[in-house]
Amino acid sequence: MRSISALQRLSNLNLLRVLSSNGRKTSLTKLQHGNFPHSYQINGRHLTLQQAAFQSIAQERKFSFTPSQAVTNSSSMARDQEKFDKTKEILYSTDLGSMQVQQISDAKSLLFGFSNRKTVEGSEIAEEILERLVAEGRDGGNRSAQVEAKIYNAVIEGYAKSKTIQGAAKAEALLERMMERSEHNQDSNDNGFVAAKPDVVSYNSLMNAWSQSGEEDGVSKAEDLVAFLESDDAPINPDSVTYNIMMNTYANQVGEYGYAQKAEDILLLMTALQKDGKNSIHPGTLSFNIVLKAWKNSGGGVESAKRAEDILRLMIKLYMDGHYDVKPDKISFQTVVHAYMKHGENGTLTEDIANRLEGIIQVLLDESGDLSLVRGIVSGTVNKTLEGIRNSGLPDAGDRAKRILDSMIKARDAGKTMDAPDAMAFASVMNAYLSNPTTLHKGRLMMEDMMQGEYPVLPTTYSLNNILHIFCKQEDVGSASDLFKKMTQLASEKGYNTMPDIATFNMMANLYFQSKNKDSAAMAFSLLGQLEESFDAKTLKELDPFVYNVVVHKLAQSENPIFREKSFDVLMRMVERSDARQLKKDPETYVYNMVLSSITKRYSAEGAQKALVSTNVSSLS
After folding, report:
1. Same domain, yes or no: 366 and 425
2. Domain boundary residue among 204, 221, 238?
3. Number of domains the chain contains
4. Do 374 and 471 belong together in one domain?
5. Dihedral, 333, 334, 340, 346 alpha carbons, nearest 10
6. Residue 158: burial class (beta carbons within 10 Å; 0-12, 13-18, 19+)
7. 93, CA 20 to 30 Å: which among 3, 196, 342, 385?
8. How is the beta sheet containing 45-48 ordered, strand by strand?
9. What is the SS3 assignment for 82?
10. Which own/partner pairs from 544-548 qualify as long-range (CB within 8 Å, at least 24 positions apart)?
11. pLDDT along the chain (621 residues), means of 10
12. Are both 348 and 482 inside the same structural domain?
């Protein structure tokens, strides 16, 4: 028996995370090493690790604790512990060769479960189970304990999903062990045990492991595996997944122009192999999308985006000619749009790029057959394009965005697409207008029409927050305040989904704080009242300390002594909400310091008394 298993390490690790995430400082001392569970001393009390974890939680949440509460207070931890206990029984308490069919089935289920945890620790436990099953069949003579290739593959893929160098190394070691066993078919007692042979999934999973590991030589290791599978000595041949993984490895090398070309070369190879009758090679939509991604991520500037567009147009042509396995989807179109947005000069789009983006929309709506009828393609591509146009800084950005929106509406009316423009699309057009002083009036008119129900899309909190962000960025207190008021009015009078959310309040609070308007302190104080009213009325899901902090700061620095006095009142309201567990976190020390500084400016007995109260509250928090 091993001294300490991966199972034991992971079980302990889960509980230690509970302890380490506890904000309260806890005196935790490990008393002994050895077999699971360990014994710990927490604040002078002897407990198991599980009990120590729950004692820590109990202290933080201020409820009494007894060791028996450990399971009832966390059903998920209890389920995990049940899995650990069952695994320990299989690994350490069952005699070799005596596993029943149900136990073998349970062991495989546990193996798949631990592999899916996407951690090295979880996969180590899965590997221990695998080795126990191998021993059960090979050495224990239990013919029910056959370990198929898919069992090995699950563990290898589990290591791959950890996306670590350690995981990739362990995956490689396991595949090598699998190869060695299959070559020698180790059967110590002639029990009829047949060792599983690696299949293409085994090699593909190891490729995945190295490609995602972050290892400096990860790309070359993946290339070596492809070269091995392509060699005459390989027991199996690569398939489409093999080449897709290799292309995706290249595609993830951001800023490397040469890798995009390598990905495209593999796509051409796949096409050639398919024509030669290789039945396992089928370059489809996924393969083409990976190459589009590679060009998007390459460092080739606008030329890379143009190459991606050429490939997209090829996909459309192939599809129109009857090659339905390369049907472009929304990822295809959005990847090309993103490529142009990413490769704009100095982070902005040139007029040429904007023209090309409009051209992609035109191709989708008018030159792609029934592609525009697939739900999500048009709306996703239009929204991504409008995002780029909106942020382009071009003087005619608003008109360009409106032109795209109108073309989508026209296509919808003509039955060319099932997608209708959504609130995000309208918000992007309005933002494009409102961001430019020369087109501001068009944006305001469009906003009013939308709120009056003149468009097929009703305003939402999200879309109006986008417009509010523009007003706040322009420090337009009047327009922002009017829109904030209108959002509540539309929700209460027309039932629109426009009730201000925490993002709305945060933007308004920050605007009032930055404003030099003589009434801005009063506005900020009033805003806080509206925030609390919305929360108490349950139209707001949470209270963010940000608004309180900003209002306290605004009032505390006011020249008006009345407002400086109110900073103390706001702090006390904040403390009350915190005590009631309604705030996400307690007031921080700097907030108390601001209030202390503010209310002692009057040098009055009353001010001194309030300062003392504030200090006492701070020390208790």
Report:
1. yes
2. 238
3. 4
4. yes
5. 180
6. buried
7. 196
8. 28-30, 39-42, 45-48
9. helix
10. 544/502, 544/505, 544/506, 544/584, 545/574, 545/583, 545/584, 545/585, 545/587, 545/588, 546/506, 546/509, 547/505, 547/506, 547/509, 548/573, 548/574, 548/577, 548/583, 548/587, 548/591
11. 46 45 39 37 43 41 37 64 90 91 95 95 95 92 92 97 96 96 70 86 97 91 96 92 97 90 96 91 97 93 94 96 95 96 71 94 94 95 94 93 96 94 92 92 92 88 92 94 96 94 96 92 95 94 91 90 88 90 86 80 52 50 50
12. yes
Backbone angles phi, psi at 524, to 5 degrees: -65, -40
Q: Is residue 325 part of a domain?
A: no
Q: Kindly state the tokens that stand for 232.
A: 């005459």
Which of 50, 66, 93 represents a domain boundary (last residue)?
93
Q: What are phi and psi of 278, to 5 degrees?
A: -75, 105
> 253 CB contacts (<8 Å, ≥6 apart)?
219, 259, 297
Radius of gyration of the CA atoms of the chain, in A: 32
Instruction: Name the 3-class secondary structure at 557.
Output: coil
Name the β-bridge partners of 45: 42
In a domain, 280, yes or no: no
Q: For residues 580 and 529, what is the distance between their CA atoms, to the nearest angstrom? A: 17
The residue segments making up the domain with residue 357 are 344-500
Distance CA 578, CA 621 (A): 10
Question: Same structural domain for residues 438 and 521?
Answer: no
Same domain membership, residue 119 and residue 27: no
pLDDT at 171: 97
Which two tokens mark 241?
């997944």
Measured in Å, how far apart are the chain's first and last C-alpha atoms? 50
Entry field: residues in the chain:
621
- Rounded alpha-carbon distances, angstroms, from residue 153 to 112, 127, 240, 573: 10, 11, 17, 58
Return the closest-CA partner of residue 596 out of 621, 619, 567. 567
Alpha carbon 512 to chain centroid distance?
32
Residue 363 lies in a domain: yes
Same domain, residue pair 354 and 477: yes
Based on the domain organization, do 573 and 488 belong to the same domain?
A: no
The pTM for the full model equals 0.75
Q: Is residue 172 domain-resident?
A: yes
Write the CA distances from 513 to 473, 564, 596, integer angstroms. 13, 14, 19
The verdict on 107 and 232 lying in the same domain is yes
* 257-275 and 302-320 helices, crossing angle to 10°: 20
121 burial via Cβ count (<10 Å: 0-12, 13-18, 19+): middle
